[in-house]
Design brief:
The structure is a homotetramer.
Chain A lengths: L2 E11 L1 E9 L2 E15 L2 H6 L8 H15 L4 H15 L3 E11 L1 E5 L2 E4 L4 E9 L4 E14 L24 E11 L10 H18 L5 H15 L3 E10 L2 E3 L13 E4 L4 E10 L11
């Protein structure tokens, strides 16, 4: 019985890079957080501390900054692809690269003045293998949505610990984490990622607002399905939807009714609904979700 | 030498209340976090645990919900005033109330569907005394602003620990916490707080974007001054401006120049500039800033 | 091309339960955070909002509390196993349960008085399937360790973006997230989890302190290997070790040397080393790491 | 009506410094977070961006590191005093310095190996004026305490919004933020701050555990009083005690009683009790609490 090394990766996390592009008076801003994870011939470093195969995480950080200068930061998927291909292509000991990028939005307030948008963060995770396998997952997190009606929850299973009354009109609120996998025929990794993001985001928003909901699971499926039906470049959607409970406050002790008007927004515990919606003929995901 | 009780207060913090108002199909949403702090005849409870003077914090929470139902939540300053007057007016042992409200913004996505705005949070703190003294401070926090040029920093004092080179073109970024005190002639606490907030916020944004800055202190003063000059209902502005440093990355080792294009957005340490701008004849602040 | 439902689960996250056991004057305290995730016959709820198969997350929360009363909370692995078996065993539509528990430590300060330990959190994740497959992963997170010497980093790969100088004496610091999978012969899920945890934790601490480190990967492997060599009940260890960089401050401009005495503790970016160490004949992990 | 500059200060916040002292094989560690705030002749920089009076915050950071080397970091109060005197003494435009230090504890695990203690953080805030006025406030935060019995709450005031039943046996839990002001006869700022801290902390812990509590206010007063009675070098104590509510779970629907055994640890809202306990002849606090 021997002790062996299993799956492993290493890299530089959370390199915060802000790229300014000057177009005369008018500046443009890209504000990103980049995480690199590399794997490959790493037996020796784990076993004996021999670093010959290890490109320092410091060099990875430097590469992020140098690439931001040389190539600019276009869509985050493109920037991640550039970086992933670079690490695998230039270091023989690196067989696989995972690059994750988050982008923070800014609103223009003047030719070179900006206010951070707050709200959701755009995300992507790219994998690239020396065998050429490439996956691109785009997404967003922290998109907080709420419907103040049009949501019910009843007809559920009951056991001896069930006390929840059925609800025929409730608030439905969630903080969306959504990730969607791009259909990527070999050699066709390039596409209009900006437009794809805008449209996928719109699908999520529209499906949440437009679904008369009998359960958060139903809403989740509707959100994923909407993306898949409208965006042929996307083959799989994964959603994590915490149920941000809004409990109706009992005002009866004060002689007041509460006809779905006053809610307590609770923190913990919360329901958590996680699900995948995909095309039945979606290509295998490979490392896409790792 | 005796041990005595000094300044003290107690209350319920962070009561999260969401108020829905139905206008037929169209719903309106107010999402707030309310903190109540009361003080008064509290010697006995501290000395002997005699709670006769203590209105439970649980009752304070209930009051927030009941008032949200009975009065709705209009502008947060008005809601805070209602609550503060109620506690002082109804409990003889309560001599002073401080009510703080934060409001989270939502954007409409449908007749009863919303997406949380993210970004800054609107705030207020109201004090009300049984002698009738009332103060109202409005404000915001977490408004993140950045100018990608139009900022210098040089000509500063130097000592033996100074290594900072002068900067003639730098990124200036901050996360604004601003609070402004309303001029409140007795009995005139009511005003258009919504419009006042919108305009004060605009002044802050415009002054930040429009000030060619030789130091963050100068920008701070300009922001406060702009509010005071344009808004006669406001007599004092307090600002906390962390200097969110954006350091130019040294790309020379890679044969690249960096003409103010690629920045590292640092977390810690950070400069912190705090200042007050006020009218020379501003009425005394009383408890306003406590 | 049809849209189908892929992997999914739902449940109640972060049920905070505190269990007091009274032994006369002396009280005992267990403070936990429980997350339940169930999966099974969930096609209908996603497709049509038919909740007949859905045991409400509210009932799951109630079950956590009722079980804390009925069975007490012994070792968190045992409590998680009880819950997981209950959900799968009592609801025909639930085919699989994942129960995660975090435990917060408290130090005794009196017969019924306690101070929270702070520092690391003990964790476990249990999976149970209606086919009888059961996995138990124990662990901890937020264990922050530092060696002020006995760490080097050199001999690494270099590319055009490498500027890092070799280090022959550096601070090595990390915040350990460790999880270890128990070898569980069918029907033998019960063991002394308390002692197993104490010993696994000791192995991690000892290996970190006792390894002269040429790279954080080497330290990671040594930590995992130590657990496996000393604890036959454990067959796989997964570690996530952020490299909490401590940079030597350049004091030369002030006429001072800095012989590894004064460090800047950086936040971001940071190296992140993730790895698995396991027995070559470890049983398949199944759902253990999901 | 002119616009004038009111109270202001500026400085470098959150300089993270780790100081290693080598005693042969055995190393010692001090891990601190230092915040500097300076004020003085700052009219010009606010009005016109003239930085002649402004010692850069970068120089302040450098000073922290250089002083850590030159003087070591003894007790944090001493380190803060050194820094505060330095800034006021060396820069004619700086009339007042406030230095705040937090210290993170580490437990020894080997001659040069450490594990971070977690739990509470030791704090201090020092003010020094060019007139010689000096104040020292020591303290701690995030000390989480819980009594599982020995706490009641009843006999409180009631109004129309009061529904809380009286409690004769409840859990009392809080996260202590405590700050205490030292009695500092001129020129006698030096004392055994380590021992003073240990003893003050012990007083807080003992008083919390040892007070049969009829209200959190009573416990607060007892904690402050204990410090004052046992520590003649301390003249004022300020405490912020959030009431971390532990609500008894209603298990009756499941046919179970709950005799103070199973609690839900709630997050928000929470009671917040703030109070000051001081000697009636305490010297004026000056800027101590700013």
């Amino acid at each position: 019985m021997a002790v062996v090394l299993g799956p492993n990766r290493y890299g530089k996390a959370e390199t915060r890079v802000v790229r300014v592009t000057r177009d005369g008076e008018v500046h443009h801003l890209k504000d990103c957080n980049v995480g690199v994870s590399l794997s490959g011939a790493m037996e020796e470093v784990h076993r004996r501390g021999d670093n010959a195969a290890v490109l320092p995480t410091d060099s990875q950080k430097n590469t992020v900054y140098a690439f931001a200068k040389k190539h600019g930061i276009g869509e985050i998927e493109e920037f991640a692809l550039l970086l992933a291909r670079h690490f695998v292509g230039s270091q023989p000991t690196i067989h696989h690269a995972r690059v994750a990028v988050e982008e923070y939005g800014w609103e223009r307030r003047g030719p070179h003045s900006f206010a951070r948008s707050g709200g959701e963060v755009r995300t992507c995770v790219v994998h690239h293998d020396r065998d050429g396998a490439t996956t691109v997952v785009s997404g967003l997190r922290d998109l907080v949505l709420l419907n103040s009606t049009g949501s019910e929850f009843h007809g559920f299973a009951k056991d001896e610990y069930t006390t929840l009354p059925p609800a025929t009109d409730r608030v439905l609120a969630t903080a969306v984490t959504a990730r969607w996998r791009h259909l990527l025929p070999a050699g066709e990794e390039s596409r209009d990622y900006a437009e794809s993001y805008r449209q996928a985001r719109r699908c999520l928003l529209d499906a949440f607002a437009g679904t008369y909901s009998l359960s958060l699971q139903q809403t989740l499926f509707a959100m994923g399905e909407r993306v898949l039906r409208e965006r042929p470049e996307i083959c799989e959607v994964r959603l994590e939807l915490p149920n941000k409970h809004h409990f109706l406050v009992d005002l009866a002790p004060f002689g007041l009714d509460n006809d779905n008007e006053v809610y307590f927004a609770a923190d913990r515990p919360y329901g958590l609904i996680e699900g995948t919606v995909l095309h039945d003929d979606a290509t295998p995901a490979g490392a896409a979700w790792d």
